[in-house]
Design brief:
The protein is of the alpha/beta class and 471 residues long. It contains 16 helices and 19 strands. The chain binds coenzyme A.
Amino acid sequence: MGTVEDLKPIFSPKSIAVIGASRSPMKIGYEILQNILVQGYTGKVYPINPETPMIMGLKTQPSVLAVKDDIDLAIIAVPAEFVPKVMTECAKKKVKGVIVISSGFGETGEKGKLLEEEVLQIARKGGMRLIGPNTLGYKDPIDNLDAAFVFGMPRPGEIALISQSGALCIGMIYYANGEHIGLSRVISVGNKADVDDADLIDYLDNDPSTKVIAMYIEGIKDGKKFLDSARRCQKPIVAIKAGRTPAGSAAASTHTGSLSGSDAVYDSAFKQVHIQRAYDVIELFDFARALAYQPPTLSNKVGIISNGGGAGIMIADWCESIGLKVPNLAKKTVEALLPHLPSITTARNPLDVAGDARFHRYHATGSIMLSDPNVDALIMTCVHAGIARPREYVGAVIKLVEEKRNLKKPIVACWVGGPEVDEVVQELRVKNIPVYPSAMRAAKAVRSLYDEGRRLEILTKKRQPKDNSSN
Ligand code: COA
């Protein structure tokens, strides 16, 4: 079986055993069982605990060996020293996959490394794939399965998240929820003793619910395997690689037992396989949201519309400083724009539609800009400006995105103002239209779409048969 088939029993299990399911609401084994039940998992659930006959109304078994039915997935939450014993029982029971939540392995030093190796060998000999140890588990908002120990689910969406940090993973889920960014699968990989980033990239590349793969990485053990998977992957990958500095790298080695490696090596390897690098969580989701919900840009030429000159100038600066172009508009475009503009403004790129712009001026100028052959992406900005009509601006952006989908030119929104504007632009987030509260973030999101356009262009060229006409 290949990796994708191997991982199905873990990510789409028909039955789950929770080993170390606890009676105590303060314990992790209690939370895991609770989360599975709260989310309404429809398969069979077997709490395993030798000390008590019932937990949460479910009959317990003293060991997986006492369960009569087959078990696809075992989630293990007993102290590290007992993990080899329960894993051996899982292997005997022919459990198909295991998630080891327990800490106390490679991240703790030499003794822990030996224990991790022992657990890995039990999994290998037993034909079980293993996620972890030292993991939070996973959350699947598409198929409604919460196989993790922290309460709360992501919004369903099309961005998959792989995280080497469990706590950060939860933080990222809540950040995404607040931004109305939906996720398809959220997987905490922990120490990656067996299942690693490469396996998950392969799995998610085959997942119809995932459009973009977002990753938080501290270290990669098998560089070649990782690069091969990333190179094969049809979907865009955005990754944070943490542990870039000596201080960060030292912290990563005690956190997940990772060797961070040279940052320059990672940087060049990511470039080779077109992984987009993000430098913090906000950037990770800025890029992922644009990639999931707007088309890639065919060229680096960006049109800019704002109702405040300063905002337009700053976006132009950001675009040009990160390799995008702010081209002159075609003569025809300038002529078409003029009737829609007040006399105080000039028909040019970046275009200032003035502070009093209402729905029609935003919509008409946006539509004309998108028809310009020199413009392949559009950033539309609203600054609070006192007399501005942010709600009408939002309406114009939504209408343009819906009307102009077939042009395959991305539209990204940007705003500058306080909570009043933020509240209004929420409507854009709900409709999955990328919207950013700064010129820099909007420009970088377009750059991400441009990089994706280039990745696809290179992939298409590689797939085209060689021209044999000269033979
Ligand atoms: N099979 C099944 N259940 C067993 C068992 C066995 N062989 N041995 C013990 N249990 C039961 C215990 O009786 C207990 O249930 P109870 O509370 O009803 O008595 C339950 O399993 C848990 O065992 P306990 O010894 O109380 O462990 P714990 O809950 O204090 O800690 C871990 C277990 C795994 C949570 C802990 O060792 C750990 O690693 N914590 C960190 C996890 C973490 O942070 N992971 C990384 C996240 S990113």
